[in-house]
Amino acid sequence: MVCVNNLNLFEESNCNLVKDLDIKSQLNNIDWSFANREKAHPIESLHPYPAKFIGELPRSLIKTFNNGLPVLDPFAGSGTTLMEAQRLGLEAVGIDLNPIACLITKVKTSATPAKLLEHADDIVMSAQGRFSELELDIPNIDHWFKKDIQEAIVVLLEEIQKFKDDEGLFNVLRLSLSSILVKVSNQDSDTRYAAVEKNITAKDVFSNFLNAVKKIHKSLLARTWTLKDVQLIHANTLEVKAEDFKKDIGMVVTSPPYPNAYEYWLYHKYRMWWLGFDPLKVKEKEIGARAHFFKKNAHTEENFWHQMDGTFDLIDNVLVDKGYTAFVIGRSKIKGKIIDNADIIQDVASQHGYTETARIERVIASKSKSFNPSYGNIKTETVLVLQKQK
């Protein structure tokens, strides 16, 4: 009996070794620069969002680790990983603190609302020529939005609110309006937070809104895959519990916020105000936000270590044994010092019993932009693949 058990253990060990070698071989055969990338699916550009990774990146990782179980992205952002999981016939779970990110993801991964274009036309027809008595409680609103633009946005929001009981339709309409807010504001661009004079009128708000609805509608209709279930948790990842999950997780594919790099809350600041969210609450808990690194008792790389430690506490409780995690992570610059965040994640992971399967450097597209110019000098990022050994 002992001999049989030992033989079974030996065979299982050999099987796992062969599988690990196969995983490494598959990873090594991928062109991580994606130089011959196919044209991006229109669903990827539903709404402006900073530092998105291209669909091929999570798709390649999910294909490699596919065990038929749901995929988790604990920092879901605009939902690229979740959408790619759907595209490959898998269920997915995503977590994000940013309400605009969650709205984008919901629309990307949900069914196309019926009569969307007709409802949008009706909204604009009702909104044009009428006024609102609503008093706005948005900081510096007159600096960033002309009075007639404010009025047009308010009446559109009021008309959209009439569809709140139809969640899918309501989400698409709100996302459409959100997507044009920078364009109709005095803000120079999505990546330049400065006020400039623009020749924009209330009429442009309505026409841009209709165009945004049409763009999203066309993108949603272009999906050719079955919309598998996506569970989206709008919360701080460090506060999510295993009980919040409907099912066990088969793999983790994510790109966590880099310390002192992208300002997600700032990028969507006025979108959040307009849609009724508080960006300052998002800023307070957002991992990596630059403001945390320039205040009294400023954050350091040690804070990131503890944040990733908390993330692995969650992953430990939901990921199946021998499951893989893949982190796409760049370097940060904090007070002139370059921090290799992959080293931090690897150190945290090792203390949770994970072993490294692969560590790959890939080139970041030079067109990537952010609110932190110093970050633009960092040209590569790391794909770190780890395996749970429990």
Commentary on this structure:
- The chain is an alpha/beta fold and 390 residues long.
- It has 2 domains: 31-104 and 233-263 and 279-388, Rossmann fold, CATH 3.40.50.150; 116-221, no CATH class.
- 43% of the residues lie in helices and 17% in strands.
- The chain is built from 14 helices and 10 strands.
- The strands form 2 sheets. Strands 1, 2, 5, 6, 7, 8, 9 and 10 form an 8-stranded mixed sheet that branches.
- β7 and β8 (337-340) form a beta hairpin.
- 41% of the residues are buried.
- Residues 9-14 and 368-375 have low confidence and may be disordered.
**Number of helical segments?**
14
Silhouette: globular
Find the count of extended strands (DSSP E, 2+ residues). 10
CATH topology of the largest domain: Rossmann fold
Mean pLDDT: 88
Structural class call reads alpha/beta
Listing every helix as H and every strand as E from the N terminus to the C terminus, the arrangement reads HHEHEHHHHHEEHEEHHHHEEHEE
The tally of domains stands at 2
Largest sheet: 8 strands, mixed
The Cα radius of gyration reads 22 Å
Q: In whole angstroms, how far apart are the ends?
A: 25 Å
Q: Give the C-level CATH assignment of the largest domain.
A: Alpha Beta
Helix content: 40-55%
